[in-house]
Structure formats: C-alpha cells, structure tokens
Design goal:
single chain; mainly alpha; Fumarate Reductase Cytochrome B subunit; 12 helices; 3 strands; about 65% helix; Ni/Fe hydrogenase; transport; Ni-dep_Hydgase_cyt-B; heme binding; heme
C-alpha cells in the first residue's frame, strides 16, 4: 500500500512507504513506556528514598513541648504516594502485557508469533541482521513486518516484564494473611502464582534483589531500543524512529546482496 517513490540511484531499489504500527499498538507502546518510566522512578525511591520532605511525628518533641513536629501531612507521607503510583503503574503494565500477549497471537494485521517463533528461516534471518549490526555489511532486506532479530529481543524483553510482575506481586502479597477487600481468592491467587519465586530465589530478600536487577535490565533495554532505532534511521534512511509516532516507515525492495547481482 501507499506511496511509492522511485529512487533509481539507490542500490537498494525502490522506496516504499509502508504501514507498520496501528493506532492501538501505538497507544500500547506509549502507555507501556509511561508506566515503565513511572515505575522506574517510584521504584528507585522505594528502594532508595533519596528525597525526604517534612518530618514524621517524634515523641521527643511531644515530651518537651507537647507539640508534634510533623510538617505537612502530605510531606510526611511521600513514601505512601510513591508506593501508590508504583502500584498504579504496575496495574497498567499488567493489563498492557496481557493485551500484548493476545495481539502477539491473534492480531489480524501482524501476529508477532510469526516472527519470534524460531521456525523455518527466521533464525537465519535474525543471525544475518545481528551480523550486519557488527560488520555493517550485507544488510538484509527489511519488510512490512518486524524483523526476526527485533522480534526475538522484544520477546525476551516481555519475558523479563513477566518475571518482574511475578516478583513484584510476591513482594506485594508477602504480608497478606487471610483475606483482602475483594475476597480470599485474591491473596490465594497471588500466593499460588508467585510463591515459587521464594524457593527459586532463596526467600523474600532474593526476590527483592531479582526485582531490582530486572529493573536495571529494563533500563538497559530502553537505552538499546532508542539507540538502535536512531541508528537504523540514520544508517538505513528508512525512518524507523517514526514508527511509534505516525505508524509508518519506508522500506526498500532489495537487500544489499540482491543489489550486487
């Protein structure tokens, strides 16, 4: 579909404008990004409370003066606000994750499983792309859909998100006993789905450390993702960085090896 621009001087053939990301997927992309950035910031504060506003009530003040030196109430409860925003961000991430999982298999436009499942020549295509990143030679032909290497990296990223969700839920439910406001089924479900992390990671301290470690891996992935999209846009001149904004990019109908024939 779309506009076709002739570029006879290019060894990669014609340039085509193709649609890569629907409006729904762009909303998912930016909502996911905002929720993850929110949880990185609030998670940092929860782990390392670097900002202390106001003072909590102290008995020393009340003994000498009879007046509690507590500052403003909202200032004394900044940790509570951070935990609240962290929890809201986690709920958004959970919902988006399951929407992504559904679209990965049932999207009518681009079911992602066709790219990331290592059948046929997909692994070979991913290897050629990885080799091109390091050698800048033999660039594979890009297509209307995500290339296999990107699809595999995104799949690993979402598996990290899944593990982050499970370790986060384990820390959340660790103090739950009995029932909750929505019934006994909720803490039971969380314990049932996450208690195995206590065994695998050696207790709640280990779960907490894994949760923090995954956060750093997610930060590294975000840096890599931005870098590689900018790099591809500059080196390939196909406008990859524009995909999450407008949904479109350019593609060429020849690979480097085809252009040499």
């Amino acid at each position: 579909m779309g506009l076709i621009m002739q570029n006879k001087n290019s060894k990669y053939g014609e340039i085509q404008l193709v649609h890569r990301m629907t409006v729904i997927k762009r909303i998912i992309h930016w909502s996911f990004f905002a929720a993850i950035i929110n949880n990185i910031i609030t998670g940092f504060y929860i782990a390392y409370p670097f900002l202390i506003f106001g003072k909590t009530p102290t008995q020393a003040d009340s003994l000498s003066t009879g007046v509690l030196n507590s500052g403003e109430t909202y200032q004394a409860f900044i940790m509570t606000w951070m935990r609240e925003f962290h929890f809201i961000g986690a709920v958004i991430i959970d919902v988006i994750f399951f929407v992504w999982l559904y679209l990965a298999f049932f999207s009518w436009k681009e079911p992602l499983y066709k790219s990331f499942i290592p059948f046929g020549d997909k692994l070979e295509e991913a290897w050629r792309m990885l080799k091109h990143y390091f050698t800048l030679k033999d660039r594979p032909k890009t297509g209307r859909y995500q290339d296999p290497l990107n699809a595999i990296i995104f799949t690993l990223f979402h598996l990290l998100i899944l593990l982050q969700m499970l370790t986060g839920f384990q820390m959340y439910v660790a103090s739950f006993t009995g029932t909750s406001a929505v019934g006994a089924w909720w803490p039971w479900l969380l314990h049932f789905s996450t208690d195995w992390t206590l065994v695998v990671f050696g207790g709640l301290t280990g779960v907490t450390l894994v949760h923090l470690f995954i956060m750093w891996l997610i930060i590294i992935f975000i840096a890599y993702h931005v870098y590689i999209e900018v790099w591809r846009s500059i080196m390939w001149k196909e406008g990859d960085i524009l995909i999450p904004f407008g949904g479109y990019k350019y593609m060429r109908n020849k690979s480097e090896s085809e252009s040499d024939i």
